[in-house]
């Protein structure tokens, strides 16, 4: 007979774990919610999956405990609860109340004692007891009727600990854990233990003698004199430590089993809570409906909408004509993968009005060719049909289906709507369709509204805005080794999934538009982000050619450098170690060479930089690390990214990752290819034109962020330097050091350059001192001198920071907005970090807007045939194009003009934004075509 289950929750043990493991989450008002989110997810999982018969949430009492009475120093050294976690306690109490749970606590006792007492009582009443915790102290409560559930580091799954599992984890059985604490103590609770006895020794003693009392009764059997003397001198301390570390199982707490019955969930209370704390993705859990929403919200997606697969040409035309009449068409493709050059379109979902969605399957079932043949053609019809999907044989020929859709998808009078349309545009291009008039992408809209959110998938956005629980891709195809292709999903199953996606994309559009307008983001959305989608799609399609043989040669050179550096380190240090092993490097530096420990025994680059003057081997280790990273991350990795069908690398440009508005890229990450070191720059030599007769052109804004600082601050000295087209770093150095520009040294210019850029990133004297290798006082004096020479900059920074704190958000010159919850934090360090991020967004985000406008204008010229070029890359403040060698001058001039004019028609700029242009046979060996100096 199955026992009823009692689940005991160690609330504070969990919320501390959630606080340290969950992402930093905050509401729009700056209320921290990371631990609350983790607790909510845990409780929902309990109610949905674990379903105990009885539930107790144990809380800490605010009063001192009996342990404090016995040992005044108990927990005395424990750090105060972090302010950000303390601020979440009221919300956690609200959450527990919303679930209908009555918390259990007892004055004079800890939550551990409440759990220990109820665990004993529950087991005595014949219940199966489980304890959900993040604290290993609870292991001592485990017995044949009591187990512990704990999520281990790096895993979201719970691991169940019985007696044997505790023994394997701790080295002793549960009942001996208090004895273990008696010997080794517990620094987190300031339990002293026996001085000089650590975990290994304590475990070995208990293994040998059985328990704490037996250890002290058998001291004469301990061979090590030092250990024997330590134990003999500290028996009372060990016994005190055991008492402090023992969880009380007989606290005066009545066990009224009926009081702990699992409560029925009040959906309205929970919906109101999740709405209040902006956790709307939870509202679809447990069948809850969003009835307590604060502002009016769109109706939930109706899953009883009549979606259907369409196999008839006339019916497809009818749906397309409805879209043409309405002037809009929502599109979503289902594919077998993400590579437009290799993965086929399996089906197309279309909708032009909410609830009016169809799915056109074209490659479901075994009629899909598994390699060879025309990827986008219909095949020769020789494959056998899959009898397991009765609809597979009804599908239109893929070529015929695409031909039907093409005129409508390419019609510029029909607005195209979707979610992540850049992907759909590329897949359609591979099928011979140029998607025209990309008018609304909810993926981009959701990002613009909350650029720090990082979760903009359709399922998440629909859940937040509509309370809709859409099926995921993994729901359809599975995951891991058992994952199948979408073409293997039966059509009748694919219909509701695909149609619900386009339906949801249409339904969330009005609410997203309302929010964009409310934040003044509609112009950035319509004039910058949406026109950028086809630009990025084109660049990803173009790709860039790589010289694989050059990379192979570089790999050999770098490997030789690494060997030489390793040998030099061995000669200088007298030890031959693996420099790729942090452990071996730490032993070399801190044990053999006896260098000071900057951060425990860390050997990360920040530590090595601080140690580089302490021993001649350290700079060589730094060089080795740099060479090894370049070889492993780029030189050896880039050839594997060459697409075998095109012979080029097709990086992905990410429009929704950087909160400041800057673009990023992945596979490969072009922004991370180093350019400051000579070794890093060498990698650029491998990026080449696609064929003979072509050249690469690079157009790079000259110090755009410092120019924008001058624009925004209005500082006359900075503006004058730019008007005179002076070297801005030399000019600033001349002002700060009080020397003529012609007499500025390289070190002085380097100092000025560091502070010019450092101000944008909120650099203070400590960081500046590290960057320049000077004392903090020198750095502070340097900053003060800078501000005395450029008072407009100081005034701008102070006024901007005041406004940021008042508004709670940063805004670019073009209206892009980023809410920064840390600006409202009660924690000074967090607030200062928020100010740095927000100030940086104001300048860097404005530069990003300008770059995007320039890219859009260059793309327009290419489309119009005014420029014979392909845009390949955008990295930092630079655009890279490929053009016929004889057209280099024309391409360079037109690109330069477009970049220098970008954003002028917005009325936001007065300072010049010149671009330096170079051209050459690869991305490194380039000659200057135009420079502003």
Features of the shown structure:
933 residues; Rossmann fold; Nucleotidyltransferase, domain 5; six-stranded mixed sheet; five-stranded mixed sheet; 46% helix; globular
Could you write a compact summary of the structure shown?
The protein is α/β, with parallel strands linked by helices.
What topology does this entry show?
Blueprint: E1 5-10, H1 11-21, H2 34-50, E2 54-58, H3 66-70, H4 83-86, H5 89-98, H6 111-124, E3 128-132, E4 146-151, E5 158-161, H7 163-170, H8 177-184, H9 199-209, H10 212-217, H11 225-233, H12 235-245, H13 267-276, E6 308-309, H14 313-326, E7 328-335, E8 345-353, E9 356-361, H15 398-409, E10 415-418, H16 421-430, E11 438-441, H17 442-449, H18 458-466, H19 473-477, H20 491-518, H21 522-542, E12 544-546, H22 548-573, H23 582-592, H24 605-611, H25 617-635, E13 648-649, E14 652-654, E15 664-666, H26 678-682, E16 687-688, E17 694-701, H27 704-713, H28 716-723, H29 728-737, H30 746-760, H31 765-772, H32 776-789, H33 791-807, E18 809-811, E19 817-819, H34 828-863, E20 870-875, E21 878-884, H35 888-901, E22 915-920, E23 927-930
Parallel strand pairs: 1-2, 1-3, 3-4, 6-9, 7-10, 10-11
Antiparallel strand pairs: 4-5, 7-8, 8-9, 12-13, 12-16, 14-15, 17-21, 17-22, 18-19, 20-21, 22-23
């Amino acid at each position: 007979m199955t026992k009823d289950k009692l689940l005991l929750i160690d609330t504070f043990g969990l919320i501390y774990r959630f606080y340290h493991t969950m992402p930093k989450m905050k509401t729009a008002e700056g209320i921290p919610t990371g631990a609350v989110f983790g607790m909510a997810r845990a409780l929902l999982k309990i109610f949905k999956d674990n379903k105990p018969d009885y539930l107790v949430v144990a809380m800490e009492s605010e009063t001192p405990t009996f342990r404090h009475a016995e040992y005044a120093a108990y927990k005395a050294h424990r750090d105060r609860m972090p302010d950000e976690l303390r601020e979440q306690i009221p919300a956690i109490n609200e959450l527990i109340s919303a679930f209908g749970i009555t918390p259990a606590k007892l004055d004079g006792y800890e939550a551990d004692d409440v759990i220990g007492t109820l665990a004993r009582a529950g087991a005595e009443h014949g219940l199966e007891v489980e304890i959900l915790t993040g604290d290993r102290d609870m292991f001592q409560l485990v017995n044949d009727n009591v187990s512990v559930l704990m999520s281990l580091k790096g895993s979201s799954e719970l691991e169940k600990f019985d007696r044997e599992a505790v023994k394997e984890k701790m080295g002793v059985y549960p009942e001996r854990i208090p004895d273990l604490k008696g010997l080794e103590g517990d620094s987190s609770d300031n339990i002293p233990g026996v001085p000089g006895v650590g975990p290994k020794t304590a475990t070995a003693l208990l293994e040998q003698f059985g328990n704490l009392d037996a250890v002290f009764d058998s001291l004469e059997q301990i061979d090590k004199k030092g250990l024997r003397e330590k134990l003999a001198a500290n028996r009372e301390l060990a016994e005190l430590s055991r008492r402090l570390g023992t969880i009380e199982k007989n606290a005066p707490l009545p066990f009224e089993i009926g009081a702990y019955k699992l409560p029925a969930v009040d959906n309205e209370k929970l919906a109101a809570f999740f709405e209040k704390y902006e956790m709307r993705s939870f509202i679809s859990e447990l069948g809850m409906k969003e009835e307590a929403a604060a502002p009016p919200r769109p109706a939930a997606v109706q899953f009883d909408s009549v979606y259907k697969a369409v196999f008839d040409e006339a019916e497809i035309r009818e749906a397309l004509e409805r879209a043409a009449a309405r002037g809009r068409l929502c599109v979503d493709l289902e594919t077998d993968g993400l590579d437009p050059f290799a993965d086929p379109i399996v089906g197309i979902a279309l909708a032009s009005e909410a609830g009016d969605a169809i799915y056109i399957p074209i490659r479901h079932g075994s009629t899909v060719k598994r390699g060879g043949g025309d990827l986008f053609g219909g095949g020769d019809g020789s494959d056998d049909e899959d009898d397991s999907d009765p609809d597979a044989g009804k599908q239109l020929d893929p070529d015929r289906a695409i031909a039907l859709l093409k005129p409508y998808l390419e019609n510029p009078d029909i607005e195209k709507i979707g979610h992540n349309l850049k992907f759909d545009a590329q897949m359609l291009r591979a099928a011979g369709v140029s998607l025209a008039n990309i008018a609304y992408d909810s993926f981009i809209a959701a990002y613009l509204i909350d650029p720090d959110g990082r979760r903009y998938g359709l399922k998440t956005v629909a859940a937040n805005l509509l309370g809709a629980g859409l099926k995921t891709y993994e729901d359809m195809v599975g995951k891991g080794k058992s994952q199948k292709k979408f073409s293997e999903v039966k059509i009748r199953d694919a219909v509701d999934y695909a149609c619900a996606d386009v339906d949801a994309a249409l339904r969330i559009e009005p609410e997203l538009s309302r929010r964009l307008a409310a934040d003044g983001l509609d112009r950035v959305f319509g004039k910058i982000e949406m026109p950028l989608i086809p630009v990025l799609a084109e660049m990803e399609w173009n790709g860039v050619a790589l010289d694989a043989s050059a990379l192979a040669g570089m790999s050999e050179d770098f490997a030789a450098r690494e060997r030489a550096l390793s040998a030099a380190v061995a000669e200088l240090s007298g030890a031959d170690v693996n420099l790729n092993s942090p452990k071996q490097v730490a032993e070399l530096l801190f044990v053999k060479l006896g260098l000071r420990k900057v951060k425990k025994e860390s050997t990360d680059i920040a530590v090595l930089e601080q140690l580089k003057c302490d021993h001649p081997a350290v700079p060589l280790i730094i060089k080795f690390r740099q060479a090894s990273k370049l070889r492993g991350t780029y030189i050896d990795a880039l050839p594997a990214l060459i697409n075998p069908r095109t012979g080029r690398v097709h990086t992905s440009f990410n429009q929704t990752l950087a909160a400041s508005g800057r673009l990023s890229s992945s596979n490969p990450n072009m922004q991370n290819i180093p350019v400051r070191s000579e070794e890093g720059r060498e990698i650029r030599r491998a990026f080449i034109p696609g064929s003979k007769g072509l050249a690469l052109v690079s157009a790079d804004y000259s110090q755009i962020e410092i120019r924008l600082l001058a624009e925004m601050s209005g500082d006359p000295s900075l503006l004058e330097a730019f008007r005179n087209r002076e070297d801005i770093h030399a000019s600033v150095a001349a002002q700060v050091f009080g020397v003529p520009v012609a007499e500025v040294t390289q070190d002085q210019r380097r100092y000025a350059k560091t502070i010019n850029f450092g101000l944008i990133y909120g650099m203070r004297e400590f960081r500046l001192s590290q960057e320049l290798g000077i004392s903090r006082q020198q750095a502070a004096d340097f900053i003060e001198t800078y501000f005395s020479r450029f008072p407009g900059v100081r005034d701008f920074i102070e006024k901007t920071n005041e406004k940021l704190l008042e508004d709670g958000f940063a805004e670019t010159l073009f209206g892009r907005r980023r809410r920064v919850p840390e600006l409202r934090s009660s924690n000074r360090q967090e607030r200062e970090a928020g100010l740095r991020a927000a100030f940086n967004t104001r300048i860097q985000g404005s530069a990003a807007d300008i770059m995007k406008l320039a890219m859009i204008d260059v793309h327009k010229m290419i489309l119009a045939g005014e420029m014979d070029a392909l845009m390949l890359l955008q990295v930092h403040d630079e655009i890279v194009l490929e053009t016929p060698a004889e057209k280099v001058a024309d391409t360079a001039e037109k690109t330069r003009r477009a970049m220098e004019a970008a954003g002028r028609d917005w009325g936001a700029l007065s300072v010049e934004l010149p671009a330096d242009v170079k051209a050459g046979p690869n991305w490194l060996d380039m000659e200057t075509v135009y420079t502003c100096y």
